[in-house]
Design a protein that fits this description.
Number of domains of chain A: 2
Order of helices and strands of chain A: HHHEEHHHHHHHHH
Strand content of chain A: under 5%
Number of strands of chain A: 2
CATH architecture of the largest domain in chain B: Orthogonal Bundle
Helix content of chain B: over 70%
CATH superfamily of the largest domain in chain B: MetI-like
Number of helices of chain A: 12
Oligomer: heterodimer
Shape of chain A: flat
Structural class of chain A: mainly alpha
Number of strands of chain B: 0
Distance between the termini of chain A: 38 Å
Distance between the termini of chain B: 60 Å
CATH class of the largest domain in chain A: Mainly Alpha
Order of helices and strands of chain B: HHHHHHHHHHHHHHH
Strand content of chain B: under 5%
Largest interface: A-B, 107 and 111 residues
């Protein structure tokens, strides 16, 4: 009847209470046990959902794994159902995520620094609202906007780069004259979409930088930028890295924006500025899964599972690093 | 390291200021503003000359990009000539940080503006018509709307929230209350699921439900299930943050009065956090309403009304946008923008509601602590 539990408060976390920590030994009634069961049960439901996702996806992709074995993971051309090489679409996802991070991270860091250090107090609530608003705009609206607006806006400078710097391999395109619907445009759109993630994580770690050290730096005559580079950034470096890894995991799985914009050829290619080059896993699954035959479905599921494992790896790594440096999300 | 921090003494004003006047560190100096404006005008003229005379064509986007880059360089040289390297770094960093914020603002404004300009006219042409009639008429005449998609979105999101909000809140309470091994696993699972690609949820529901049942397997309820897979972790994270900050003293007081654990949670912890919990739920709903990849395989899509979420294919707003995007006619794409307008309006209403409630929340907490302070002497006497 009597069970030993830790006190149901947050006292244990703060450390200083460790010495005087009391162990409550409550007499749990049947109702209390039932309530605890309810709480734990709802937690277990979440666990079951994740486990069953993995189990069902794995069982459905078993045929593809059995048939192609490691060739599936090393093939560089995705041509289902005969030659499904996951790299043909996974590399494109990774490139989109990298472009997104390269474009979104500096902007997100600028916003985080602006909210924490530069903006006048009246402006801060508005800026925070702006970042939150970016987070709730549906991805299909971003995709529609990217397809109809950004695609054409970007093609001007991109065509100039392709014409004048085409001797560098990554600036060459497969279809000369066409610079829309590319991996690069998708990367830019997804880059805008990850700004809120990086901004909120880095804001949180930056706000925990020791205030007195910042003030000491300013008091010694340091510039504001000097304070940022010598105090705030070294303090929050690992948190920012964690946030960026989280953003990579989100960017890898982004479906709708890429589905609307990208025209792929599902091969590994260096031509990122033009269409008909790299593919994208989420896009491929979204477009072809419902209409594919059983074998292609199995292959697409295996590709989706590979993507899922990649995103899980990045998000766990990111959370591990971010949590170690004290950020919450 | 310290030397790197030291400010260039040249920055001091030429005339000595009276020592009793406070030095405002965040003041924008007139010189700095003139430098920046001068750099901007000079580079605008230079870039315009180059673009018109040399015939470089990079579009508006490229023009603004080159203009920003050149003004940045000219401003840097100006400041460097007058104030030295340290201040140059500081000033350039300031400009860069504001530029970053402005780029994000422009992107956001561009998205919202595009949706308003392209979708607004069709929505307000014959005002409520677009919201109450279905899309099927668009093929024959000029009578079209997204009524059936609004019905679908409302029903699916409602079912998804009824399913996932209780689970999310209970799980969040569990994560705050329990420090057990299982709780730690669940916490990591919730964290990882917030980052799950949304296509995975749709794929999962397709494999376990739609495939065994054939084309009849798609309906609004299955779409709602797929949506709740994404909604549970998002709402749970937000609720966890709210429940966590309920003051420990409140719980201890309730425990000290002899309240059993379930009473403490149901009567003290959750009511204290209720406004925050509603905010969390609203934000979760706002996020979910715009999710597309989940409903792509599960809802089916429909250009006529289907009020029954349990049977038959159903439409919803994100799916309607997706259906319209690749239609050949410009008219159909305009209907897509109209659907995007309605979806954005819905999401923004939910978002604004959550923000206003959140603001009220902090107000309430202040009032709450004030009440507690007032009551304390009364209980002592």
């Amino acid at each position: 009847m009597v069970t030993l539990v830790s006190p149901p408060t947050d006292l244990g976390d703060s450390g200083q209470f460790e010495e005087t920590r009391i162990s409550l030994k409550p007499n749990l009634t049947g109702m209390d046990r039932a309530f605890r069961g309810l709480l734990a049960g709802s937690g277990v439901i979440v666990l079951i959902i994740l486990v069953s996702i993995v189990v069902f996806l794995a069982s459905y992709s078993w045929w593809a794994l059995k048939t192609f074995k490691w060739h599936f993971f090393t093939g560089t051309v995705w041509s289902a159902p005969i030659h499904p090489g996951v790299l043909g679409i996974l590399v494109g996802s990774v490139i989109i995520a990298l472009i997104a991070v390269a474009f979104g991270t500096p902007i997100a860091l600028a916003i985080a620094l602006m909210i924490n250090e530069y903006a006048p107090p009246q402006l801060r609530a508005w800026l925070t609202g702006l970042v939150d608003l970016l987070a709730v705009i549906p991805s299909i609206v971003f995709g529609f906007w990217g397809l109809e607006v950004l695609n054409h806006d970007v093609s001007g400078p991109v065509s100039w780069i392709a014409n004048h710097l085409g001797f560098i391999p990554i600036f060459r395109t497969t279809e000369p004259g066409t610079y829309t619907d590319s991996v690069f445009v998708c990367g830019l759109i997804v880059g805008i979409m990850i700004i809120p993630i990086v901004a909120s994580v880095s804001r949180e770690v930056m706000s925990q930088a020791p205030r007195d050290t910042c003030e000491a730096a300013l008091g010694l005559g340091g510039t504001r930028w000097g304070t940022i580079t010598d105090v705030i950034l070294p303090f929050s470096r690992s948190g920012i890295v964690g946030g960026v890894l989280l953003a990579i995991s989100r960017a890898l799985g982004e479906t709708m924006a890429v589905l609307l914009v990208l025209s792929p050829a599902n091969v590994v290619s260096k031509a990122i500025l033009g269409p008909y080059a790299n593919g994208d896993v989420a896009r491929q699954v979204a477009e072809y899964f419902p209409v594919a035959d059983v074998h292609s479905q199995s292959e697409l599921t295996l590709a989706a599972l590979t993507l899922f494992a990649t995103t899980l790896f990045f998000s766990l790594l990111g959370r591990l690093i971010a949590r170690r440096s004290g950020a919450q999300e | 390291m310290t030397a790197n921090l030291l400010m260039d003494p040249v920055d001091a004003a030429p005339t000595p200021t009276p020592s009793d006047r406070p030095r405002r560190t965040r003041r924008v100096s007139r010189d700095g503003t003139i430098d920046l404006a001068g750099a901007a005008i000079a580079s605008l003229a230079a870039i315009w000359l180059v673009f018109t005379l040399a015939g470089v064509s990079m579009g508006n986007f490229g023009f603004f990009f080159c203009w920003a880059a050149l003004s940045y360089a000219i401003y840097g040289i100006l400041v460097w000539r007058r104030h030295g390297v340290l201040l140059t770094k500081d000033r350039l960093a300031t400009v860069a940080i504001w530029t970053g914020g402005i780029i994000a603002l422009i992107a956001l404004a561009s998205v919202v503006w595009t949706v308003i300009v392209k979708g607004g006219p069709i929505v307000f042409a014959h005002f409520p018509r677009f919201l109450v009639i279905d899309t099927s008429g668009g093929k024959t005449g000029d009578e079209y709307g997204v009524g059936q998609s609004i019905v679908g979105t409302v029903e699916q999101v409602l079912i998804a929230s009824l399913l996932s909000v209780p689970i999310a809140f209970l799980t969040a309470t569990y994560l705050v209350q329990s420090k057990s091994f299982l709780a730690r696993i669940v916490r990591n699972v919730v964290d990882s699921m917030t980052g799950t690609p949304s296509i995975i949820a749709g794929l999962f529901m397709f494999i376990i439900w739609v495939r065994p049942h054939g084309v009849d397997g798609k309906n609004g309820f299955v779409a709602a299930l797929a949506l709740s897979i994404m909604m549970i972790p998002v709402s749970c994270r937000a609720a966890y943050e709210v429940i966590r900050i309920v003051p420990g003293s409140l719980r201890e007081a309730a425990h000290a009065l002899g309240a059993p654990e379930r009473r403490v949670i149901l009567r003290v912890v959750l009511p204290t956090a209720r406004v925050g919990l509603i905010t969390a739920a609203l934000l979760g709903i706002a996020r979910t309403a715009g999710e597309t990849a989940e409903v792509l395989f599960t809802a089916g899509g429909n250009d006529r009304f289907n009020w029954n979420p349990l049977h038959g294919w159903q439409d919803d707003l994100p799916l309607r946008i997706y259906e319209q995007v690749f239609q050949p006619s410009a008219q159909a794409i305009t209907v897509g923008w109209g659907a995007a307008f309605v979806l954005m309006a819905l999401v923004l209403i939910l978002f604004t509601g959550a923000r206003i409630l959140g603001a009220t929340h902090s107000h309430n907490r202040r009032r709450f602590s004030w009440l507690r302070q007032r009551r304390q002497p009364a209980s002592e006497s």
